[in-house]
Amino acid sequence: MAESLAALQRTVVEAIMRPLGAQWQMRPTAAARKAVALIKPGPTLPSFERLEIYNRQYWFRLLDCLYDDYPGLRAIFGERRFMRLASAYLQAHPSRSWALRDLGQRLEPYLRTLRKDPAWAGDRLEAAIEMARFEWAQVIAFDGAALPPITPAELAGTPPGELRLRLQPHLVLLELRYAVDELAGAAKEALRTEASQAAAEAPAPKAHTRARLPRRHPRLVGLAVHRVENAVYLKPLEREAVRLLRALRRGATVEGACVRAVTSGRKSLDWPATLQEWFETWAQLGWLANARE
Amino acid sequence: MPANCFNGFTDYGIGIGLRVPHYRHILAERPVVDWFEIISENFMVDGGRPLEVLDSILEQYRVVQHGVGLYFGSAGRLDKGHLRKLKALVKRTRTPWLSDHLCWGSVDGRHTHDLLPMPYTLSAARHTAEKIRHARDVLETPICVENVSSYAEFHASSMTEWEFLSEVVERADCGILLDVNNIYVSSRNHGFDPAAYLDNIPHGRVGQIHIAGHSQFEQYTLDTHDHPVLDPVWKLYAHALRLCGPTATLLEWDDRIPSFEEVHTEALKANQFRDTHG
Asked: pTM for this one?
């Protein structure tokens, strides 16, 4: 039985996951025709239009979700190109999670596959890849797990050569070529302005419809996306700090991670003082947790 | 109507859905509300603001969980990861019962995030009931299943929607979350008598009622949850109360959400019907 139920459900899903056509209408594809054959005509609507309601609902709901979660990507591509991208992405990667929050999880790897496509490849795509990584980081920072921070006694009780630490799961470490954080902030601000104007019933032109390219840094810049008292914050990091934290996350001992940072980092830094300051800051922010947690 | 394990929460009166635009007002003003319904999936996260808000609400209010993602009617098995997170949330909220929809929405791991109508067949009812029983055993909480609004029916169906609902809940030995707005919406789209639906379900299994607003288009009626409750739905609600007795009732308002006071005032209109018909 489950097999015939599965067959019916597969047929319907194949149809409603097909992209909509002009004026948001269901296209008369072979998949749609097969599903329509399963559906009774209603008192006011033929089978095709009944199925079309679900086809629309699917696309409206999922596109809306990406639209809300990725204002920075929209700013880079502009509204129309963003919607084309989102539609292509959802066709390549239909949702595999019960949580809509996860919908953009594979956007960044998907964008990387577009490097081979001359219609997309270029600086704008490279900036978009970083923006997708940055906006997904905010999803993780918003509701990712928080472990009990390590206590000073736990830190003091183990020699650095044996001490391993976990980083908070909500902490995301990024190295960025583009100032995507600036552009995303501006895009969000434009949205807020638009929403408040809409609430006052004073229609305004959409401020975020034109494609924009974020400023390019002269070299890679480190950035932490993290959470303090349940609000998401951004913290610029030295590149060596990013590498040190990443080494800790991979399971290196504190000593091992520090040695690696020092030997591969800038010679001009006062390393003992720098390391002490970093660890004090990270401990204050609660980023460091016991590896045994 | 004697209380039973499904319709025994007669001390639960009128609740409203806990929604983001109202968080600030609720946490600051602490208004008198009988109970809040939460969308389970919105709080099945590992940390952060959603859980902070929930814990704060739980300090003062009773919370009932309502889910949108178990998909009892999907042909595949229940998602173990989903159940694990749901169980953790059940422990946190101590929800007296838990509801989700009598529908399907995923196949072969692909999720539509929609509430799709079932083919009303005996074999589908058996399959769905088995999954509800399994979920109840894992979650160790009474489950109510909600009838969905629908815009399509399948040729494969061999019974009415209310016969299917009755078949499923009897086989699963579970409760019903009776959405009278959904019955009205579906009755308009499929041309059946909504009163006949209400008359022919096991009333003792109705543990909760949903009311909501909908939108009427030229050729179909859409379940939009963006309006006050319309008169025909209030009439159906009164009819349901006559049949089921005083039942925990919740107003759903999910789009174009007005102020907290406006939503709460609309919800409390249900009291007039409970006093007269419950």
From this structure: 0.93
